[in-house]
Amino acid sequence: xxxxxxxxxxxxxxxxxxxxxxxxxxxxxxxxxxxxxxxxxxxxxxxxxxxxxxxxxxxxxxxxxxxxxxxxxxxxxxxxxxxxxxxxxxxxxxxxxxxxxxxxxxxxxxxxxxxxxxxxxxxxxxxxxxxxxxxxxxxxxxxxxxxxxxxxxxxxxxxxxxxxxxxxxxxxxxxx
Length: 176
Ligand code: IMP
Ligand code: MG
Known about the structure:
3 helices, Rossmann fold, globular, three-stranded antiparallel beta sheet, single chain
């Protein structure tokens, strides 16, 4: 293990099981709906790729990229859309797929931006929820795992663009 990885928090097996459950739940909840998944780049791509294959219903895909922490582990509080979706989401059932919700700043700005395009419904599926640092009160309809207040990497999540390839979620020992 890399020396800046302290411990494995969520194993590959645990992730697989939970993603499968989420896939079953989402397939039931969005049966007969016009589901459009909007994946938040870059962190959510690994989760998205597995979650998609756990769905048994038709789904459209789009991507959005937001300004993030940059090279720091601290959110700036200002969120900008760097790359927008290209699909028309009006009258569609939109599900945001996000890697982690921390302060909630990113998700609440994204929700606001998407709601202005008048989808029929707008919900969120986040792999991880870190409620300890929440600043904006937001509803997350589907959560993979609740985690304590620590900085995590792996399964798409990075620190300085590293560790996204780890097949598990690990606690990093960076200053946070
Ligand atoms: P928020 O706006 O504070 O909720 O931050 C959300 C974004 O910050 C996520 O989409 C991640 O990209 C990043 N982030 C928050 N916590 C962590 C973490 O523990 N590890 C890696 N990225 C994180
Ligand atoms: Mg993210």
